[in-house]
Amino acid sequence: MSPIFEVCLDSVASAVIAEATGGSRIELCAGLMEGGITPSAGLISTVKAKTKLPIMVMIRPRGGDFCYDDDEFEAMLEDIKLCHKLKVHGVVFGVLLPDGSVDIDRTSRLVEAAKPMQVTFHRAFDMVQDPYKALEDIISIGDIQRILTSGCERSAYEGLDTLVELSKRAQGRIIILPGAGISERNVNKIVSAMGATEVHVGAGGTKESKMKFRNPYCSMGYAISAPEYALKVTSESKLGGMIHRF
Predict the structure, then answer these.
(1) In sequence order, what are the residues at sequence separation of 6 or more whose Cβ sits closer than 8 angstroms to the Cβ of residue 207?
(2) Contact 199, 169 (CB under 8 A)
(3) CATH code (residue 62)
(4) If DSSP codes are grouped into helix, strand and coil, which group holds residue 215?
(5) Collapsing DSSP states into helix, strand and coil, what is residue 205?
(6) Span 74-97, mean pLDDT?
(7) Helix, strand, or coil here: 231?
């Protein structure tokens, strides 16, 4: 059976491509160069209007670590309220303590606020000190459907041994959703080794900006940010190449 393909994306154009190419679900973010932050209400609403795919919305108030102060945590709760109003399928978040363990108290409060939406504990998991303890802590909270993880490595392929062990230990109590660096070249091996029922992919590509005038002396954001005239968009060929292998 083909796994569910969750496509991580940050634009309406990418959402339309993901649906047309056979994607099963969307993880909707802004700021993918920061690993994903909370998208705007306008983006959520427009993607919801333009596609019929279930949408999981990233709840992350900033880039960087996953240890939040009181104001940041309050912002996360407010964004979950907004997701209720917009009637999305689910939300994606993760909160850690300074010692690299799961913040059970705050994660529980976010889960309670999210009900009855689905919940994914995201790749904050990959920054924990002990992934097997973190697995049990997340399961103990309840009402979290899946953990998105690369197996605590830069890519799911590199973390495959840990992903396999997490899947064994989960014993069907929670979905282990592999993600990061998954491509046509490795998706079959990862899915087969884990017995994965879901997979998280980016399938990133670029398209040319429509701008004819281009100022060579100025750019928006930091020097490492994406250039203004190479727009990031889901690649139909990359995504299709993965989906059609099953």
Answers:
(1) 230, 231, 233
(2) no
(3) 3.20.20.380
(4) coil
(5) strand
(6) 98
(7) strand
C-alpha to C-alpha distance for 117 and 144, rounded to whole angstroms: 10
Extract the tokens encoding 220. Answer: 């928006």
pLDDT digits (tens, 9 = 90+) for 162-216: 999 999 999 999 999 999 999 999 999 999 999 999 999 998 888 888 888 888 8
pTM for this entry? 0.93
3-class SS at 37?
strand
Structure tokens at 50: 């333009």
- pLDDT at residue number 52: 98
Residue 225 lies in a domain: no
* Structure tokens that stand for 222 in this block: 């930091």
Distance, CA of 187 to CA of 181 (rounded, Å): 9
Q: Is the pLDDT of residue 219 over 80?
A: no
Is residue 221, in this structure, part of any structural domain at all? no
> Does residue 223 fall inside a structural domain?
no
Residue 27 CA to residue 95 CA, distance in Å, equals 18
